[in-house]
Structures are given as structure tokens and as C-alpha cells.
Amino acid sequence: SRYALGLFYEAGTWIDVPWAAQYITNNPCIRFISIDNKKRNIESSEFGPSVVVHTSVPFGTAHLEWDKEKVQSIILDHLENIMLGLPKPTSIKCQKWRYSQVTKAIPSCPGQMTLHIKPLLVCGGDGFTHSNFDGCIDSAICIVEALKTNL
């Protein structure tokens, strides 16, 4: 479990960091931050930037049943220590993400599971490999191979 926090800004707001996304390894609360418009390489005079924050799994698990407003306040305190001078957002959305990460993948599974041939029904994702982006890619490749074999 973890929390995701979205901070939304007015058009023209500048988030002054030299990166688009960053994994945070030295904070007990925050694991990942992205400046969404930079990450997607989208500049707009009409829409403002947004910042996306993911907490660490241990933090999310420890605070899973807490009041969302209290958790949001804790995350914002940590974020302000990481991103000094972060502008005040026009709105904030805090989202509890109860199942965010695979802790135990399906054993002996080759990256996908074909449930039915006609019609073809294939399941996949990091739950069929290992929990990270590479696991998703590995599963996607296995799904494509299953599709090629059965179509």
C-alpha cells in the first residue's frame, strides 16, 4: 500500500527542478516525485504543471487507515523538505492506493497466463513476473508472444 499525492498549479507556474522525475531513496515517507508536464514533455500556456508524489510502501502500510487529510499533511511536510521553495498549489488530491505493488508474484508463471483460447483471454502485468517497471515490460513481451502464437 502507498499514497499518491497530486499537486496542481496555475498556468505559468514554474517548478524549478532540473529533473522530470526522481526516485527518492533517503526519505521515510516519499519514494517518487515527478513533474508531470516535464515527464510528458508537454509545455502549455493554458494549463499549469502538476507534481505527482508516491509514498514508500512502508509509509503507506503504516498509515493505511489514517485520516487522508492527516496523511496529506505529513506527505506535504516531507515534500517541502525535499523540494525547497515549492510553490503553493491551487489544489491537491491525496489518493490511498491500497494495492500498489506486487509482493508475491504468481509462482512458475512465464509472464502471462492464457485463461481461454477462443475467445483469446490473456492476463498479464507485474503480478506475473516481478514488481517494477521491468516486470511490466517483461510481461508485455510475454503477452505479445502469447498473442502471436494464438491468433
From TrEMBL:
InterPro entries: RNLS (IPR040174). GO terms for cellular component: extracellular region. Gene3D superfamilies: 3.90.660.10. GO terms for molecular function: oxidoreductase activity, acting on NAD(P)H. This is Renalase, FAD dependent amine oxidase. It comes from Gopherus agassizii (Agassiz's desert tortoise).
